[in-house]
Amino acid sequence: MNERNDHDHAIARAIEGLTASDPAAPPPTLPPRGAGEEADALTREYVEALALLAFSDEPAVPDPAIRRRLMSEVARAAPVAETLPPARADVPPAPVVNLAERAPQPAAVNRWLLAMAAMLALAVVGVSFLAGQVSAQRVAIDQLQAAGGLLSQQTYLLSELLAQKEQNLKMVTVTAKRVYPMRPVANERGEMPEGRIYVCGRHQQWYLSLSDLPPPPEGKEYHLWFNTDQGPIDGGPINVFAERPAERAAPYMPPGTRSFSITLEAKGPHNAPEGELILVADRSIQL
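Predicted structure:
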């Protein structure tokens, strides 16, 4: 019953303060906070009564001082709202990488391996072809070098032969003083070779030229003999080649040579003629 009276008394006081007819009258004041339990309870009921006035009476403009006091009480009683950090902007999620798509497929791997195998096969074929070409070129170079060496030898021999020919020609045309024609000796084969020996009066230099003399049989050779007062002296074998004259020359001859002869002997050294007589030169013509 006492609580009901106190509540009504608070409402009455609130209405009286809001509807005071004397504007100069001081506004009703609330007891200060901490004045006691009764004062705090009265203040709380007073505030509750004021909150209910909006629904029980027509709206009225409250006194500014009361309004400020009410708002300060409301703000003090209201819990402090927790300040939340500003919301972050939505970050787009990272794209999901499908490793299965990146993994090489067996067919692609097989194609790659086939391409590599084809390239290696082409490389091997190319290297083999080039190696064959290099080998063939080396063989050709070796053959050319051998031919060049043979040609140089032939050139040297030809130059020597030409020099000998020039020397023989000079002896025949300028130096020779006598010429000994060589006449063939009758034989069963009917061969008719001929030859000449040119002799220089000074130092007894001589030059022999034979033509139409066939190559000797196997195991035999032609020998030149110098017939002197002491007997025949072997002048050595004569090399005979087909289709060209046989020639011999020397800067000297045995002293006392009176004639010349050519015989067909067995190969080897001889002290006296033993074989068939082929040509004889026992007469001379002075040039």
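Summary: The chain has a mean pLDDT of 78.
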